[in-house]
Amino acid sequence: GIGGASEQEVRATSATLSVLSAVPDFSKAVLRQFGAPAGKVETFVETSFKLPDGRMVRPDGLIRVTGRGRTWIGLVEVKTGRNLLESEQLESYLDVARINNFDALVTFSNQFSPSAGVHPVKVDSKKVRKTEMHHMSWTALITQAVIQHEHRGISDPDQAWILEELIRYLEHPKSGAHEFQDMGQHWTSVKNSAKSGTLREADPGVEEVVERWIEFMRFLSLQLGRELGAEVRQHLSENDRKDQGFRVNNAKRFLESDHTLRGAFRIPDPIAPISVSANLAKRIVEADINVDAPKVGMPKT
C-alpha cells in the first residue's frame, strides 16, 4: 500500500524510531555506535527548525537519550530505495545541530559506508567540528535487529514481537530497505577487458566497479555477521581505513596488474583474517587464511 518514495521514507522512519524507543536492548546496540549513553530513549518524527537566514528545515526525526548524568540528542535523516543522501541537505541539518548544541546527525539509507566509522557522503569539514555525523545502512540496521532477536534474545515477549515485526517490515521489497543490488553498469565491460588482458586503470567504469566492490565487501561483512550473530568487520590497512581515495586508487592499480578485486574479513575468534579475492580474468573467487607456523617444539610436531 505504499504510494511513493515520500511515504516509503515516512513509514521507514516512524517504524524504526518507534522500535528504538520501545526495545531497549535493540536501541542500546544501535545507538551506542553513535556515542549515545545507555538510558531512556525518546524519538520524534519530522521535527522543524528555523535557521538564522530564515529557512525552515525539517529533518526526518530526532532521538533523545537520557542516562548516565547526561542527555544525548541526534537528528535523523532517512533515505529509502535508490534515493541518495545529499551533502547540501546534511550540511543544513549540521547547522541546526550546532546552533542547538545537539550531539550528532544520524543517517539511514541504502548507501554503504566504505569502512566502519566513515560516512558515505562528504560534507564541509567545518560543519563536523562540534557535531558528529554517523551513518548506518538499512542492511546494517536489519543485521543488528536480527542479531539481537535471534542470537542474543529479547527477554520481554512483547518487545521480541515488536522487533520481529520491524525485521519483517524492513525485509519486505516495498519497504525501500534494499540490500546490495549490483556491480554497476560498467561491470560487464570491465570483466571482459580483464579476461582479454586489455584492462587499464584509467578505463571508463574501473573506478565505479572498484567502489561497488568496496560496498559489496561491506555488505558481505554485515551479512556474515547476521548469520554468525557476531560483529564481522572488514580487515583494512591503516591507510585504507583513513583515506578512501587511497583505498580506491590502490584497488584500481591492483585490478589493472592482477585483474583481481580483493577484500578481507575479521571475524571474532578465528586465528587470522579471512581473505577473499575475485579474479575477473579467470572467473575465479578464492578465500584463504594465513596461519603462522609454530615457534616452539620440534619441526615434526
Provide the fold topology.
Blueprint: H1 5-22, H2 24-31, E1 40-45, E2 49-50, E3 56-57, E4 61-67, E5 70-78, H3 87-99, E6 104-109, E7 132-137, H4 138-152, H5 157-170, H6 187-196, H7 206-228, E8 233-234, H8 238-242, H9 244-258, E9 260-266, E10 274-279, E11 284-288
Parallel strand pairs: 5-6, 6-7
Antiparallel strand pairs: 1-4, 2-3, 4-5, 8-9, 9-10, 10-11
Count the DSSP helices.
Answer: 9
Low-pLDDT stretches? none
Shape: globular
Q: What is the averaged pLDDT score? A: 88
Residues in β-strands, percent: 15-25%
Q: What is the makeup of the main sheet? A: 5 strands, mixed
Q: How many extended strands?
A: 11
State Rg: 21 Å
Order of helices and strands: HHEEEEEHEEHHHHEHHEEE
Terminal CA distance: 66 Å
Strand order of the largest sheet: 1-4-5-6-7
**Given the helix and strand composition, which structural class is it?**
alpha+beta
Helix content: 40-55%
How does this structure look, described?
The protein has 301 residues and is an alpha+beta fold. It has helices at 5-22, 24-31, 87-99, 138-152, 157-170, 187-196, 206-228, 238-242, 244-258, and strands at 40-45, 49-50, 56-57, 61-67, 70-78, 104-109, 132-137, 233-234, 260-266, 274-279, 284-288. Strands 1-4-5-6-7 form a five-stranded mixed sheet, sandwiched between helices. Strands 8-9-10-11 form a four-stranded antiparallel sheet. It is globular and about 60 Å long. The mean pLDDT is 88.
